[in-house]
Amino acid sequence: MKSSSIERHIAHLSQCLRETITTQMAKQHISLSFFQGLILLHIGEFERCTAHDLVVQTKKDKAQITRLVNELIELKMVVREKSQQDKRQSLLSLTDEGIVLFAQIKQLRAEIKQQMTQGLSDGQQQQLQQWLGVMERNLSH
Protein backbone atom coordinates (compact mmCIF):
# COMPACT_ATOMS: atom_id res chain seq x y z
CA MET A 1 0.00 0.00 0.00
CA LYS A 2 1.36 3.42 -0.91
CA SER A 3 2.04 5.70 2.05
CA SER A 4 0.06 8.50 0.39
CA SER A 5 -2.95 6.20 0.42
CA ILE A 6 -2.70 5.91 4.24
CA GLU A 7 -2.66 9.70 4.49
CA ARG A 8 -5.61 9.91 2.12
CA HIS A 9 -7.62 7.33 4.08
CA ILE A 10 -6.97 9.05 7.40
CA ALA A 11 -7.86 12.47 5.96
CA HIS A 12 -11.01 11.09 4.34
CA LEU A 13 -12.05 9.24 7.51
CA SER A 14 -11.52 12.39 9.57
CA GLN A 15 -13.69 14.42 7.19
CA CYS A 16 -16.40 11.73 7.07
CA LEU A 17 -16.46 11.56 10.87
CA ARG A 18 -16.75 15.34 11.18
CA GLU A 19 -19.57 15.46 8.60
CA THR A 20 -21.43 12.57 10.25
CA ILE A 21 -21.22 14.16 13.70
CA THR A 22 -22.35 17.54 12.32
CA THR A 23 -25.28 15.94 10.44
CA GLN A 24 -26.40 13.91 13.45
CA MET A 25 -26.19 16.95 15.73
CA ALA A 26 -28.40 18.88 13.31
CA LYS A 27 -30.90 15.98 13.14
CA GLN A 28 -31.14 16.09 16.94
CA HIS A 29 -31.63 19.88 16.82
CA ILE A 30 -28.30 20.55 18.49
CA SER A 31 -27.49 23.95 17.07
CA LEU A 32 -23.77 23.95 17.76
CA SER A 33 -20.93 23.79 15.28
CA PHE A 34 -18.72 20.71 15.22
CA PHE A 35 -15.99 22.49 17.18
CA GLN A 36 -18.40 24.04 19.69
CA GLY A 37 -19.69 20.52 20.34
CA LEU A 38 -16.15 19.22 20.70
CA ILE A 39 -15.25 21.90 23.26
CA LEU A 40 -18.51 21.30 25.15
CA LEU A 41 -17.67 17.59 25.23
CA HIS A 42 -14.17 18.21 26.59
CA ILE A 43 -15.42 20.60 29.29
CA GLY A 44 -18.08 18.06 30.29
CA GLU A 45 -15.52 15.27 30.54
CA PHE A 46 -13.20 17.41 32.70
CA GLU A 47 -16.13 18.85 34.73
CA ARG A 48 -13.95 21.90 35.46
CA CYS A 49 -11.03 22.88 33.28
CA THR A 50 -9.02 25.82 32.04
CA ALA A 51 -8.78 27.11 28.49
CA HIS A 52 -5.19 25.84 28.51
CA ASP A 53 -6.47 22.30 29.24
CA LEU A 54 -8.62 22.60 26.11
CA VAL A 55 -5.67 23.82 24.02
CA VAL A 56 -3.66 20.77 25.11
CA GLN A 57 -6.52 18.28 24.62
CA THR A 58 -7.73 19.54 21.24
CA LYS A 59 -4.40 20.73 19.79
CA LYS A 60 -6.18 23.93 18.69
CA ASP A 61 -4.55 27.32 19.13
CA LYS A 62 -5.41 29.54 22.08
CA ALA A 63 -7.27 32.12 19.94
CA GLN A 64 -9.58 29.44 18.51
CA ILE A 65 -10.28 28.02 21.96
CA THR A 66 -10.97 31.49 23.38
CA ARG A 67 -13.41 32.23 20.55
CA LEU A 68 -15.22 28.88 20.94
CA VAL A 69 -15.43 29.19 24.74
CA ASN A 70 -16.79 32.75 24.46
CA GLU A 71 -19.42 31.54 21.98
CA LEU A 72 -20.47 28.76 24.38
CA ILE A 73 -20.63 31.26 27.25
CA GLU A 74 -22.81 33.53 25.11
CA LEU A 75 -25.07 30.54 24.34
CA LYS A 76 -25.31 29.92 28.11
CA MET A 77 -23.79 26.44 27.81
CA VAL A 78 -20.60 27.24 29.74
CA VAL A 79 -19.68 29.46 32.69
CA ARG A 80 -16.28 30.90 33.54
CA GLU A 81 -15.30 31.53 37.16
CA LYS A 82 -12.07 32.35 38.97
CA SER A 83 -10.25 29.44 40.55
CA GLN A 84 -10.34 29.47 44.35
CA GLN A 85 -6.80 28.01 44.48
CA ASP A 86 -5.22 30.30 41.86
CA LYS A 87 -7.01 33.59 41.21
CA ARG A 88 -5.03 34.02 37.97
CA GLN A 89 -6.83 31.02 36.46
CA SER A 90 -10.38 30.84 35.21
CA LEU A 91 -12.22 27.54 35.39
CA LEU A 92 -14.78 26.51 32.81
CA SER A 93 -17.76 24.33 33.60
CA LEU A 94 -21.08 23.44 32.02
CA THR A 95 -24.38 25.08 32.87
CA ASP A 96 -27.47 22.91 33.38
CA GLU A 97 -28.32 23.42 29.70
CA GLY A 98 -24.74 22.55 28.77
CA ILE A 99 -24.95 19.33 30.80
CA VAL A 100 -28.06 18.27 28.85
CA LEU A 101 -26.31 18.89 25.52
CA PHE A 102 -23.14 17.19 26.78
CA ALA A 103 -25.14 14.00 27.46
CA GLN A 104 -26.77 14.17 24.01
CA ILE A 105 -23.47 14.74 22.21
CA LYS A 106 -21.72 12.00 24.20
CA GLN A 107 -24.49 9.52 23.31
CA LEU A 108 -24.50 10.62 19.66
CA ARG A 109 -20.73 10.14 19.41
CA ALA A 110 -20.95 6.69 21.05
CA GLU A 111 -23.52 5.65 18.43
CA ILE A 112 -21.33 6.99 15.62
CA LYS A 113 -18.30 5.14 17.03
CA GLN A 114 -20.38 1.95 17.09
CA GLN A 115 -21.39 2.50 13.45
CA MET A 116 -17.84 3.38 12.40
CA THR A 117 -16.25 0.32 14.03
CA GLN A 118 -18.93 -2.15 12.94
CA GLY A 119 -17.23 -5.32 11.72
CA LEU A 120 -14.08 -4.76 13.79
CA SER A 121 -13.47 -7.02 16.77
CA ASP A 122 -12.51 -5.51 20.13
CA GLY A 123 -8.95 -6.69 19.50
CA GLN A 124 -8.86 -5.01 16.09
CA GLN A 125 -10.19 -1.79 17.60
CA GLN A 126 -7.49 -1.87 20.29
CA GLN A 127 -4.81 -2.52 17.65
CA LEU A 128 -6.13 0.35 15.52
CA GLN A 129 -6.00 2.68 18.54
CA GLN A 130 -2.40 1.65 19.18
CA TRP A 131 -1.39 2.28 15.56
CA LEU A 132 -3.12 5.65 15.48
CA GLY A 133 -1.42 6.56 18.77
CA VAL A 134 1.97 5.68 17.30
CA MET A 135 1.30 7.80 14.20
CA GLU A 136 0.11 10.72 16.33
CA ARG A 137 3.23 10.54 18.53
CA ASN A 138 5.44 10.33 15.44
CA LEU A 139 3.98 13.59 14.15
CA SER A 140 4.03 15.32 17.54
CA HIS A 141 7.82 15.40 17.77
Key phrases:
DNA binding, Arc Repressor Mutant, subunit A, mainly alpha, globular, DNA-binding transcriptional regulator, MarR family
Give a short summary of the structure.
This protein is mostly helical.
Spell out the blueprint of helices and strands.
Layout lengths: L2 H25 L6 H13 L4 H8 L3 H13 L3 E5 L7 E5 L1 H21 L5 H19 L1
Antiparallel strand pairs: 1-2
Helix pairs in contact: 1-5, 2-4, 2-5, 3-4
Organism: Vibrio xiamenensis
Keywords: DNA-binding, Transcription, Transcription regulation
Protein name: DNA-binding transcriptional regulator, MarR family
Polypeptide structure, described:
The protein has one domain: Orthogonal Bundle (Arc Repressor Mutant, subunit A). Helix content is 70%, strand content 7%. It has 6 helices and 2 strands. The protein has a two-stranded antiparallel sheet with strand order 1-2. The model has no long low-confidence stretch (mean pLDDT 93).
Domain tally: 1
Q: Can you count the helices?
A: 6
CATH class: Mainly Alpha
Any idea what the CATH superfamily is called? Winged helix-like DNA-binding domain superfamily/Winged helix DNA-binding domain
Query: N-to-C SSE series?
Result: HHHHEEHH
**What characteristic shape results from the CA principal axes?**
globular
What is the end-to-end distance? 25 Å
**Mean pLDDT score, rounded?**
93
Question: Which band does the percent of strand residues land in?
Answer: 5-15%
Strand order of the largest sheet: 1-2
CATH names the topology as: Arc Repressor Mutant, subunit A
- Decide which structural class fits the backbone: mainly alpha
Helix content: over 70%
Rounded to an integer in angstroms, the radius of gyration calculated over CA atoms is 17 Å
According to DSSP, the number of beta strands is 2
Low-confidence stretches: none
Q: Largest sheet, if any?
A: 2 strands, antiparallel
CATH architecture: Orthogonal Bundle
Protein name: DNA-binding transcriptional regulator, MarR family
GO molecular function: DNA binding; DNA-binding transcription factor activity
Keywords: DNA-binding, Transcription, Transcription regulation
Pfam families: MarR_2 (PF12802)
